[in-house]
Amino acid sequence: MTKIPDVSGPVRPVRVASHWIAAACAALLAGCGGDGDDGSAALPQLAAATGAPLGACADLASTFSFANTTITSAAPLAAGTLTVAGSPVGAHCQVRGEMYRRTSPQDGNGYAIGFEMRLPNSWNGRFFYQANGGLDGSVGTALGAIGGSAPNFSNALNMGFAVISSDAGHDTAGPAFGIDAQARLDYGYNAAVKLTPMAKALIASAYGKGPDRSYFGGCSNGGRHTLLATTRLPEQYDGFLAGAPGYRLPLAATANVFSAKQLLLVPGTTVDDLSTAFPTAERAMVSSAILAKCDALDGATDGIVQDVAACQKAFDFTRDVPTCSGARDGTCLSADQKTALAPIFSGATDSTGKKFYASLAYDAGISGTSFATWKFGASKNLDTGAIATVWGVPPISQTGFVGSDYLTSTSVDTMLAAIAATDSTYLESALSFMQPVDPSNLSTLKNRGAKVMVYHGVSDPIFMHDDTVTWYENLRSANNGNASDFARFYAVPGMGHCAGGPATDQFDMLTPLVNWVEKGQAPDSVIATARGLPTAAGAANVDIPTSWAPGRTRPLCPYPQVARLKAGATDLESASSFSCQ
C-alpha cells in the first residue's frame, strides 16, 4: 500500500497497480533491468528533457481551463523586465491565478491557493516547483532557488525551467490562518498536491507538451515542503532539492521556545531582551574555543570545522569554554550561563528529561547573525504563534495574543501535547500534516530513477543539522546501509539557517541534480563560494572573517565524507586544495 494524498484533503490509501510500474519503466532511457556494481538491481536512468517554444502567452488567460482554477492574468514580460541581484531575467510569460476558492466554516474568512507561474520563452522542457519558506502566506516571485545563498549564480527560471510559486493556501502574513482546518492541511502538504497537476497541465497548454522532467525545491520550510513531497508526491517529481529541511518543524519550533526558556534562566535576562543571556562577544568567544579544539581536525587551520562528527566528540562545553571567576567580561561564561546554555546544545527535553528534538552542533557559526535572529527573536515572535494557532489543537486565537506572554506562561509539555492533538474539527495533528509520511521510505522515487539532494548549515540554530543527519542515517539503514545511489546529504560547515555564517554559502545544487537525474552523473562534491565584499545588490555575507580571501571556495562533500586538505597543498582559499574523504 502506498499513501497518495487526496487533492481535497486528508491522505487516503491507494493501491499502486503493476501496469503503472511497467509504464513508468517504458518511459526510461535505460529501462528497469540491469545490476549494480554490488550485485543489486541497478536503478533506472531517466531520459533527458527536451525543450519547446512558448506559444501565445496572453491567450492562456482565456484558453486554459482546469478544475477549481481561475487564471486572473497572463502577460508576456520582455528580457530584463525582472532583475535578480542586478542580473536580467530572460523573456517569459507571467501567469497568475488561484485554486479552490472557498469560505472557511471556522473563521468565516475567504481562502484560496494563490499562485504564479513563470514560463520562459526558451523552455528547456523542465518544471520546477518553488517551495517557499516561513508560514508562507504570499506568492513569492517564481524564480526557483538553485541552492544556498546564490543571488549571483542564476535561478531555475533563467536556466529555462517553468517555475511555480504559491502562498500555500492563505494570503495573509502570520499564523491566524491556522484557525481554518483546511488551510492547515494546505499549508502542511495539500497545496503542492493540488497545484502539481494544474501546473503540468498549464505547461502543456503553453508549450504543446508537458514537462519531461519535474523538480521540487526550497529551503527552510521550503525544505520541509520538499521532503514531504518525497513521500507524498514521489511519482510526480524526478529531482528533489531540500535545503535546511525542517521536516519536524513543530518540534523544532517547540525546541526553539525551550531554548528561550533556558536563556531566561541566566540571571539578568528578561523576555524583552534574550540576547543578554548570550551576547555577541560571548558567542564569538565560544566560537573561538570550538575552532581551537576542532579547526585542525580536517588537516587545515582555516576557520572552518569540516570534520563535524569528530568535533562533537572532541569539544566539551563545560571543559573547553572558560568559566568566569568574577564578572562576565566576554572572555568567559559564568557557571549559571553554562548550566542554562548546555541543554540548548545537547537538545530540548520535556519535563521528564526526555529529549524531543535534535542537538545543536558545536560549530564556528554560533557567532553569526543567524543565531541571534532565531534564538533571540523568532523564539518568541514566530514560533509561539505557530505553535499556538497553526499547529495546536484547539488553536488559540491571535486576537490579543502576545508571543512573549505565551512563552513565559505555557510549559513545553503543554505545547508538545497541543501539536500532537486532534479533535472533531482538526482531524490531523501537526505531527501528521507537517511531516513526511514515512521519511526513511523513499522506495517509490528511488525505484523510478528519481534523485534527492539535501544541504544543511551545520550552524543552523532553528532546524538542526543533527536532525538531518539522523534522517539520512535512517535512510541509509532502510537501504542496506547505503542510500548514495539516489539520495545525498551535504553539510555546509559554518553556515546558519539557509545562508550566512562564516561559511562558503553560495552554491548551485540544481545543475548537479539535473545531471544526476538525466545523465547519471552522481554529484561527488559541489563547489561552494564565500560571499566577500558588498555588491550593488547587497549580497555580502557580514559573517565572513576579514582574514578570508574574497571568493574562497570549498568542496561540499556528500555525508559522511569530509573535505580534507590534500597532502602538500598550501592554498587554503581554493577548493582544489581539498578532497572529499
Features:
581 residues, 2 domains, alpha/beta, 30% helix, 19 strands, 17% strand
What does this structure look like?
This protein is 30% helix and 17% strand. With 581 residues, it is α/β, with parallel strands linked by helices. Strands 4-7-8-11-10-12-13-14-15 form a 9-stranded mixed beta sheet, sandwiched between helices. Helix 5 crosses helix 11. The chain is globular and about 75 Å long. The model is unreliable at 1-39 (pLDDT under 50).
Write the layout of secondary structure elements.
Layout: E1 2-5, E2 11-14, H1 18-26, E3 52-53, H2 60-63, E4 69-77, E5 83-84, E6 87-88, E7 92-103, E8 110-120, E9 122-123, E10 126-130, E11 162-166, H3 181-207, E12 213-219, H4 221-232, E13 239-243, H5 249-263, H6 280-294, H7 308-314, H8 317-320, H9 335-346, H10 369-381, H11 383-391, H12 403-409, H13 412-420, H14 430-433, H15 443-447, E14 451-457, H16 465-477, E15 487-492, H17 510-519, E16 526-529, E17 553-556, E18 563-565, E19 578-580
Parallel strand pairs: 10-11, 10-12, 12-13, 13-14, 14-15
Antiparallel strand pairs: 1-2, 3-9, 4-7, 5-6, 7-8, 8-11, 16-17, 18-19
Helix pairs in contact: 3-4, 5-9, 5-10, 5-11, 5-13, 11-12
Shape: globular
Write out the strand line-up for the largest beta sheet, numbering strands in chain order: 4-7-8-11-10-12-13-14-15
Mean pLDDT across residues:
92
Q: Tell how many strands the DSSP assignment holds.
A: 19
Instruction: Specify the biggest β-sheet.
Output: 9 strands, mixed
**Unreliable sequence segments:** 1-39
Helical stretch count? 17
Beta-strand level of the residues, as a percent range? 15-25%
CATH superfamily of the largest domain: Alpha/Beta hydrolase fold, catalytic domain
